[in-house]
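ligand=adenosine-5'-triphosphate
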Amino acid sequence: MARKPTKPETTTETGEAKPEDLAAVAAAAGEPATAPAKAAPAKTERPKPAKPAPKKKAEPEEDEDDDEEDEDDEDEDDDEEEDEEEHPQFTAKEALTAFAGLFRFTWPALRKYPKWLAIVIFGLLVETAFNVVFPLSLKFLIDDVLSSEATNQLSTLVTILVALGVGGLVVSLVTIWYEYIDSLLMSSAMADIRRRLFEHLQTLSAGFYSRTKVGAITSRFGSDMGAVDEAMTHFVTWGMLPFLELLAGIVLMFFLNWQLALVAMLMFPITLIGPRFISGHAVDAAYQERRAAAGLVAVVNENISAQNVVKAFELRRTAIHWFEERNQIERTQAIRHRFLNAMVERSVTISVLMLHLVVFGIGAYLTYQEEISLGTFIAFESVFWELSYNIGHVTQFIPVAITGSGATKHINDLFNEPARSRDPDDAPGVPRITREIRFTNVDFSYTGTEKQITDLNMVVPAGARVAVVGPSGSGKSTVLSLLMRLYDPTGGTIKVDDSDIVAARRESLREQMAIVFQENVLFDISIRENIRLGRPGATDKDVEAAAKAAEIHRFIKSLPNGYDTVVGERGNMMSGGQRQRVAIARAIIRDPAILMLDEATSALDHGTEQAINKTLMKISAGRTMITVTHRLHSVTEMDTIFVLDKGRLVEKGSHKELLRKKGIYAELWKQAG
Ligand SMILES: Nc1ncnc2c1ncn2[C@@H]1O[C@H](COP(=O)(O)OP(=O)(O)OP(=O)(O)O)[C@@H](O)[C@H]1O
Ligand SMILES: [Mg+2]
């Protein structure tokens, strides 16, 4: 169990995993506030976007290729982000980069739904148009109806009101319609991306999985997809709509009175002043908080997986103490983050208020001087509100977009992880073994530096039963991995009869193989289906026969639901030995030409092990069986025993021959008693 750091500086440590929970923690830092919009009293129907929760740099919580616990923050920084270090505010460039990033990431999925896209765009345009017409109608209402001497006032009034009423109703229906289509569109696109990502995962190499933390992968589906989802969910209503209305509002202002409009344009520089000074700090605070949150989740994570130890050693108090330390760090960071975020927003509303007073004063003066009509003044006021409201929306959406875009980068890192080398289309199959498996001068290294297998020469005749033994870490499992082509040798060749397996199609190789591991994962489906995974299409009778051979039939029958018992995630409900036997049944039903067992009976008691070994001997008739084990008592009957030490083959022969040699094997045998 990892020691808990006690100093706050170590918040950079994210620990084992950054599970989905982190999404919740992180989201808490920047989720949409439900408070009514402060910047714009003019309109309240639209939910206010997230407080500017610039979680910008928060995505690279974990990097799949760092081995050490402490992650390196520089790792994922690229040019844009360095840019941001120098100019700590949301520049237009940064915002555009974020939008472009989101667009690039989602477009391939979005474009598959052209009809929905068209409907959403149509709805957006309709809503924008109506929101522009509304204040304009105020002008006519006041100038041409309310303060006019004309005779047909009433009918004009009624016409305007009816037109607005009908328009409002139609627009409302259109907005409901397009919001629905937008939900369909975005959710479908997200589902497509998730599926693509999962499919990609299935193509990645064993090497990738051995060097990547589970949390680094699941965080892509959890917090990262969550951030993209958040940005895409609000893209239309918080990003596009306010942006279009902003443009329309500017045109309208200049149409109403260009002098006043010029003053109002000061809005743009002045709303940027506050964020310019504060948002850099807010970004940093958000980042620090997210790291603190990750640290907190790591503690919880560790605690859950270590509950046995916590209970056995009475570590409850210590555990709470560790948690509380992290919790306080998180609290401190959260205070800073929340307050700075609020200040980014406040600085905008305060500036807008100041400018508004100026516009209001000038407007009132011009109206008083009869330079502009009362209707123009009021309509202008209304557009001004609208504008400040929309600026608020756009500026607050930008951090959400930046976070989402950052997350797309993190997800893309995974997409860019090269799929394991594909078998060439014309790669030959490996015919079912008839003569031998031959390792010739095989070298192999996991890391590219130290060799884990050195100059291995080994021949396993077809139909033979052989064992690979040796001290822990000597490379026994690695030999099986090479034979299955989970990894390719760095030197030498492995042949099944005349086929070099590296040049052949993987499927044809694995079709004739079955393996049972020490730790066997059962899927969360029924026991019957778990066994049937060995050979899809096997009948229920085959399944039971395999279970009988694996000495697990009686146990399964004793379960209330028998073969239909669903095993629960990772087969938690079954003991290690029971899982092992189900896995053996899964291998048996496959009817493999080559059966590999990697400590496959290690979790069994002596009696059961002997029974299974007997079965395995029986079913190994006509097959090639390679057993990797520490239990020398179970290999005495083997045709050949290969002894590995530090990745080299040091001895081989039958049990008796090896004992006579008085070498490593004889020593191991003596130790085994
Ligand atoms: N994915 C990996 N990346 C890097 N090194 C690895 C990896 N898997 C195994 N090794 C190293 O390769 C060597 C051989 O490992 P292997 O698992 O083959 O040993 P083993 O003989 O099966 O041991 P045991 O009896 O404990 O199962 C060990 O030194 C191990 O640390
Ligand atoms: Mg092993």
